[in-house]
Amino acid sequence: MTPAPVNPAVLEAMSALFVSLPHCETLGFQYLGTDGRKPVLKVEWREALVGNPGNGVVHGGIITSLVDTTSAIAVTAQLPDFETIATLDLRIDYLKAATPGRAIFCRAECYRLATQIAFTRAVCYHDRPEEPIAHGVATFMRESSPIPMLEGGAA
Amino acid sequence: MSDFIGRFARLREAGDCAAIIEAIPYARLMGVEFCEDEDGHLLFRLPFNPRNVGNTRLPALHGGLIGGFLENAALIHLMWNRESQEAPKIVDFSLDYLRPGKPQTLFARCEITKQGKRVAHVLIEAWQDDPARPVAVARAHFLLSTD
């Protein structure tokens, strides 16, 4: 059985927050939902996101932001309560070029929530997670700032 | 030769850095700038833009945005410093975040640590007020030939 988010209210508020951040809104990230504790995000292909004008392939930086954001949401699926988190490091393996014109999806999971650090892994794909175009691992600092991420001090 | 490689080479000869950024849609969207100093080193700049924020409460630049800026800098740096008929292809990218990116200009410099026949290794460092206090450091591997 797939475990449910530790605190659905945290996941709901933080996923909404993370995709609404100015940079994520600029890129057009959409939160599609969370399967158990594995959130899925989507970004549509558009000309402004291209990195190689010779072939129309999306810039690697879009993959980086997508992995970072989806992984951060995966961490919040494991959090018992609101807290501020920040990416400590991130590694992306570009397994094959994204196909121009096609939407990219990212699914992430937080496979270890330690006292101070959260560990995540993510895949980006077009059709199925089993056919990834990129793989990302990241670590996040927990309680990285006393300033809550959500207005009003909820986070 | 792809059109992009030819165009890049022509713009480099003309020293037209702005037109190179103009040719890369995502670099243009981020608002990247770069120039070549007297020693021939490239300095990349990302002037602050509210669009690039990833934590509205601190506020801080988005970590993914910082990654994109550094990866883009590495690619341009590599293409600027080598003659090839092919665009380098990124294989992997590893990024360590050392300090929050404040809402001000972010700078970056790159160094080609190794350039082999097939693979190049590039180090990238980003800072704001002081190069000795980096905001992020990264490294990337690029595939130089698809043969």
Automatic annotation (TrEMBL), chain A:
A single Gene Ontology CC term: cytosol
Residues of the Thioesterase domain: 55-128
Pfam families according to UniProt: 4HBT
Bilayer-crossing regions: none
Keywords: Hydrolase
InterPro entries (alphabetical): HotDog_dom_sf (IPR029069), PAAI_dom (IPR003736), Thioestr_dom (IPR006683)
Molecular function terms from GO: 1,4-dihydroxy-2-naphthoyl-CoA thioesterase activity
PANTHER family: 1,4-DIHYDROXY-2-NAPHTHOYL-COA THIOESTERASE 1, BLR7284 PROTEIN
Protein name: Uncharacterized domain 1
Natural source organism: Gulbenkiania indica
Lineage: Bacteria, Pseudomonadati, Pseudomonadota, Betaproteobacteria, Neisseriales
From TrEMBL, chain B:
InterPro entries: HotDog_dom_sf (IPR029069), PAAI_dom (IPR003736), TesB_ACOT8-like_N (IPR049449)
Transmembrane segments: none
Superkingdom: Bacteria
Domain Acyl-CoA thioesterase-like N-terminal HotDog residue range list: 60-142
Coiled coil: none
One Pfam family here: 4HBT_3
NCBIfam families associated with the record: unchar_dom_1
Protein name: Uncharacterized protein (TIGR00369 family)
Source organism (scientific name): Gulbenkiania mobilis
